[in-house]
Amino acid sequence: MGARRSWDQLLEPPSGRGLVAIPFVLIGTITLLDIYTGRDVQLGPLLVIAPALTASLAGTRLTALAGVLAVAAQVFIVVSLGGLTTPNRLAQIIALTVLSALVVFTRFVRERRDRALSLARSVAETAQRALLRPPPRRIGPLQVAWLYMSAQDEAEIGGDLFAFARAAHAATRVVIGDVRGNGLAAIGEASLVLGAFREGAHRCATLPELVAALEESVSRNLEDVSDTEHDPGEHFITCLVLEIPDDAPSAAEMINCGHPPPLLLHDRRVTVLHARQPLPPLGVCERPIEGDHIDPFTFTCGDMLVLYTDGVIEARSPSGAFYPLAERVASFPTTSPDTLLRHIHRDLLTHIGGHPADDVALLVIECTPSHRPHLTPHPIGHHRHHLSGSPPPPGR
């Protein structure tokens, strides 16, 4: 917020120009009525309403202007009625002056606090968006749509995470994960996994090597970034890591570390890709990670993958029913990742009747026939605690 704002900007109220005229109309009305009714009825003390009301509609300067005009109107009333030397009238002027000054001071303090909070919120939002970098709409042969909703109003991201990275051998690697807990308290652990993934995705030659690097990083650093409320052994991170080659996307593969299985849409049929040998979550996986833990799957042109966190499938309706993601996805149009994501988002919010109690992350990935160059990130759609790589559904 710049220091050289114009007077018009300072006078413009948050709720519209029309409302800010009300306090000044009150000053004029009270002044005329007080003079008209004479000394028998004293309406001057009501003038304090004007600066108090202005403080809720506009900034400090306009509040001060209302206070000055209110005091001036009180003096005008007293002079007009010939009672300037009356102790009662003098007390009214002094009281109105003091109250107006207090209202202006309170508005000034509130304005400074609001500016500080706005700056802090802006810094926090920038940091959180830097952590959860919006993926491109297209990367390699893949078209991507994504959605993120944090469980906490104060946060744009929380304990759910996802990221895309290009491998050195012309392939796209994807991770989606879920930290124990949600909201702001889980951001540190989510950042640990994202940093390790972005580094390892370029360096590690195979998927088991990448998952082993994630496990090593988490095991080494998890206690440092996690909260102290729970025992370190209770901290873990479920994740699903995929690799989709550019030249042969049908030869895709994944390793599941305790994460909900992805959904594969092929010819309008939904298949749940269960892992044959799933690994424990990161942070508690003590076994060697080998090629046997890889689950290959066929991902052909026109197919879609739906990756999600447990905040989706564990979302409850008011009656307590879990959200049936696989069943709902099978009934939605699959013309594009954006279209499918919008339907899931809208249907999920309808199912729970409000905002989810847990963090929610959703990815929809389509295998496309052409391999166009790397694109710029899709613009972020933001609504309160909603981030999305596709437009939010109507009414959100």
What does this structure look like?
By secondary structure, the chain is an alpha+beta fold. The protein folds into two domains: 7-126, no CATH class; 132-388, PPM-type phosphatase domain (Phosphatase 2c, domain 1, 4-Layer Sandwich), CATH 3.60.40.10. Helices cover 41% and strands 18% of the residues. It has eleven helices and 13 strands. It has helices at residues 7-11, 17-20, 22-37, 49-57, 60-80, 87-131, 187-203, 207-225, 310-313, 325-329, 337-352, and strands at residues 138-139, 142-149, 160-166, 171-179, 237-245, 252-257, 263-266, 269-272, 295-297, 304-308, 360-367, 381-383, 386-388. Strands 1, 2, 7, 8, 10, 11, 12 and 13 form an eight-stranded antiparallel sheet that branches. A five-stranded antiparallel sheet has the order 3-4-5-6-9, covered by helices on one side. α4 runs antiparallel to α5 (60-80), α4 packs parallel to α6 (87-131) and α5 runs antiparallel to α6. The chain is elongated, with a radius of gyration of 30 Å. Mean pLDDT is 82; it is low at 1-15, 371-385 and 391-396.
Main attributes of the structure:
8-stranded antiparallel beta sheet, disordered C terminus, 11 helices, alpha+beta, 41% helix, 5-stranded antiparallel beta sheet
CATH top level assignment of the largest domain: Alpha Beta
Find the CATH topology of the largest domain: Phosphatase 2c, domain 1
Number of helices: 11
How much helix is in the residues?
40-55%
Question: Short summary of the structure?
Answer:
The chain has 396 residues and is an alpha+beta fold. Helix content is 41%, strand content 18%.
